[in-house]
Design brief:
The protein is α+β, with helices and mostly antiparallel strands. It folds into 2 domains: 220 residues, Enterococcus faecalis V583 fold, CATH 3.90.1710.10; 174 residues, v583 domain like (v583 fold, Alpha-Beta Complex), CATH 3.90.1700.10. It contains 15 helices and 15 strands. A hairpin with a 2-residue loop joins strand 7 and strand 8. 55% of the residues are buried.
Length: 431
């Protein structure tokens, strides 16, 4: 085949990228149910634990990921204590897989086991379902690697009391006039109220609680008044309640952009506490990985950067889908939590326009005259301009069992994008 004919058969990269981003923006994720993970997540069995980030085996896992796995094994009744759980995890009798390989995302350690309750999100535009666990709140929680009795008791409340009530509210109640909750619309409204959808979710959590509360009251006839009050209080007081369903929504959006031939758009960014990994739309399910950096930010009293674990979590799916740190201009108050000044939040968003394909039709930023958020990370632009995506994130203690110690900002290693671009070039030349 001559060079002209070869060139004619190659996909147009810019056109492929517009297709990928168009699918991402058109995705309309709706919150439809809360269910038991093993009943709805494809391939999830009792001996399989899902985790955040790219694939990793027990010997290389970070402290917070090990701690979350220990807690999950105790929660599942597969181990009686931490020592027994660690021994089981190392034995080979328990399998591990990325959440992303099972239509799921999890913040921080991201551990999902078969008995845990998960939000069920459906993409009304493209079809398919995505999943995420219920959020535990701040501080000493499983997703940050803590696993003591307080953590396990909270998990039992979330899964045994709160989850069935939420499921009933969504299936029978008035959460949206008898309809599922449109998470794209909810997030768009939250961005106009000072959220950015990753680390600042106060407005979105209030909107979610407001939508669910009447239905919870209606379906709570079989629950005690104390149980209903506790569920409503937990939803209302946890400023991160909406994060997990929003992450599942972002997963649906990003998955819609995956597997577009010839596209250089990033469709996955995730970290397991040891490695940062990305996947690219036109390169299938291959992970490109490099060591995680440690976030720079603000620490809770008594902790410092010396205590911090490298970056961890699937929550970078928000930046992948065009919000989170990419929408920081909409949420200047976020800097009180992750460090910096309001002008830094605006600068962060403006910089991300440089490495993205388009602007979001549904997510807009009031301080930028309602400009759409930057969406569709292009690995070509990242490498050409030397600008990696911005991420804002929580910070976990490096030792298992302690939990969250702060929040801050981080960027993925440039090596990821360089390796992915080299792989894309090799594939493109062979086409």
């Amino acid at each position: 085949m001559n060079d002209d004919a070869t060139e004619a058969t190659r996909p147009n990269i810019d056109e492929a990228n517009r297709t990928a981003v168009g699918r991402m923006v058109a995705s309309r994720p709706r919150l439809v149910d809360v269910a038991t993970a093993g009943d709805v997540i494809p391939g999830l069995t009792k001996d399989l634990l899902l985790h955040a980030g790219p694939p990793i085996a027990w010997p290389r896992m970070s402290g917070p990921l090990r701690g979350a796995i220990i807690g999950a094994l105790i929660f599942e009744g597969l181990a009686q204590d931490a020592d027994e759980a660690a021994e089981l995890a190392a034995s080979g009798d328990i399998r591990f897989a990325p959440c992303h390989d099972h239509q799921t995302v999890g913040p921080m350690a991201g551990v999902v086991s078969s008995s845990m309750a998960v939000w069920v999100v459906e993409d009304d535009t493209h079809g398919g379902q995505t999943f995420s666990t219920l959020n535990e709140g701040y501080g000493k929680v499983l997703r940050y690697g803590a696993y003591d009795d307080e953590v396990l008791d909270r998990l039992r409340f979330l899964n045994g009391t709160m989850a069935p009530m939420l499921s009933s509210a969504l299936s029978k109640g008035d959460a949206g006039g008898g309809e599922a909750i449109d998470l794209r619309a909810l997030l768009a409204e939250a961005l106009h109220m000072g959220d950015e959808g990753h680390n600042r979710n106060k407005a979105g959590s209030i909107l979610l609680a407001t939508r669910l509360a009447p239905a919870l009251v209606r379906v709570a006839r079989d629950a005690t008044g104390d149980a209903l009050a506790r569920v409503l209080a937990f939803l209302g007081e946890n400023a991160l309640s909406v994060l997990n369903p929003v992450m599942a929504a972002a997963k649906a959006m990003a998955d819609a952009a995956h597997d577009v031939p010839g596209s250089t758009v990033v469709s996955t960014m995730a970290r397991n506490g040891t490695e940062f990994g990305i996947r690219v739309s036109g390169l299938g399910n291959r992970w490109f990985t490099a060591p995680c950096a440690t976030p720079q930010g603000l620490y809770f009293a008594g902790f410092s950067a010396d205590d911090a674990n490298p970056d961890i979590g699937d929550s970078t799916i928000t930046e992948t889908a065009g919000f989170g740190a990419f929408a920081m201009a909409a949420a200047p108050a976020i800097v009180r939590f992750v460090s910096g000044a309001p002008r830094d939040a605006i600068a962060a968003t403006l910089e991300m326009y440089e490495i993205t394909v388009g602007e979001h039709d549904h997510f807009t930023i009031p301080p930028l005259d309602f400009r759409g958020t930057p969406v569709g990370i292009d690995i070509r632009r990242v490498v050409e301009l030397g600008i990696t995506p911005r991420v804002n994130t929580g910070i976990a203690h490096k030792e298992a069992g302690i939990g969250q110690i702060g929040a801050g900002l981080v960027r993925p290693p440039m090596a990821l994008f360089e390796e992915a671009l080299e792989a894309f070039a090799e594939q493109h030349l062979r086409a």
